[in-house]
Design goal:
With 330 residues, the protein is α/β, with parallel strands linked by helices. It has 14 helices and 11 strands.
Length: 330
């Protein structure tokens, strides 16, 4: 692709991505200081993926996706996952109608644009798998009927890292279906001061619908045209292969710390997330910094660590940092 074509793509992206700033401003009316979380939500939404948020209670995880759905005029559903939840409570079931002497379908809360699966690790495996099937297949079967999910369809699952009692940790194969796993930290002191004042004076601003669902769907198509050079593709593949065969990249000491590396979903999602990140930054081409910016969120749940790594207090984050420092940047 020549420089003239890239310039044309760049101009188009600048025009098409104008709504991102508008959407961020609208969300910032309610969500104070969690810029990183908002940006990751947008990456998942525009990249046609799902996001797993991990953080202690009270960090506005629920509020963030509710605000996003209001700003995009989408349908929001919240499912509180509990140990006694059944798959039918999520996807729906068939109900017998006595006067008509027939069965009818009652759809569950999964049918919406923005689905908040609150504390997903509190529900048993059969409920988790019902949700994850809808995420992957984009369809749900109730009785003998199959229903396609609404578009856009974004699942935001949260899990609380503090309590482990009475929880059912997500298996690695199921966690892999999330495009991003984002770890949320406490707000800065100044941001928390504003949060505290707003709460005490009840001065929260109303969120208006500033973007349509059609604009989101259109943006997804435009993002596919963002230019990614072959050197960037090779850079992404080098990072992914370094998680599987670290010894090939001079990282022999990591072989004993990694139990399994990233799946091919990792390379697909890393490339997609890098394109979306470039789009959010109003650019029509991907640079290595885009890949590095999203790398931790895409890979932290895709690298298995051994008991040896746990004993040495080495996390998947540390492994990603070492890989990024070693793999040659184009």
């Amino acid at each position: 692709m020549d420089s003239l074509e890239i310039k044309e793509i760049n101009e188009k992206i600048k025009q098409e991505s104008a709504f991102v700033d508008l959407l961020s401003l609208e969300m910032n009316k309610v969500i104070i200081g969690q810029k990183y979380m908002i940006e990751r939500l947008l990456i998942a939404l525009l990249g046609n993926g799902h996001i797993l948020l991990e953080g202690v209670p009270g960090l506005a995880k629920t509020l963030a996706i509710n605000t996003l759905s209001k700003a995009i005029s989408g349908k929001f559903s919240r499912i509180q996952f509990t140990p006694d939840l059944l798959p039918s409570d999520v996807i729906g079931t068939t109900v017998y109608n006595m006067p008509k002497n027939e069965f009818s379908i009652k759809k569950g809360p999964i049918f919406g644009n923005f689905i908040l699966a609150d504390e997903i690790n509190r529900a048993p495996a059969k409920v988790q798998s019902a949700l994850l099937e809808a995420m992957q297949e984009r369809q749900v079967t109730i009785g003998d009927e199959t229903f396609a999910m609404d578009e856009p369809f974004l699942v935001l699952a949260t899990q609380n890292p503090v309590e482990q009692e009475g929880t059912y940790p997500l298996p690695e194969a199921q966690v892999d279906r999330f495009m991003l796993k984002t770890v949320i930290d406490y707000p800065k002191q100044e941001d928390e001061r504003i949060i505290m004042r707003n709460s005490l004076t009840d001065s929260h601003q109303a969120v208006n619908a500033v973007v349509s669902l059609e604009e989101i769907m259109n943006a997804r198509s435009v993002i596919k045209t963002v230019y990614m050079d072959e050197k960037i593709e090779n850079y992404i593949l080098d990072i992914i292969f370094a998680t599987r065969y670290p010894e090939r990249f001079g990282l022999d000491h990591l072989s004993a710390l990694i139990s399994f590396g990233s799946s091919p979903r990792g390379s697909i999602n890393l490339a997609t997330a890098a394109k979306v990140y470039a789009f959010i930054k109003r650019r029509g081409y991907v640079v290595p910094e885009d890949v590095r910016a999203v790398c931790h969120d895409v890979l932290r749940h895709r690298i298995g660590i051994t008991y040896e790594a746990e004993a040495e207090d080495v996390s998947s984050e540390d492994i990603i940092n070492q890989i990024l420092n070693k793999v040659e940047v184009p």
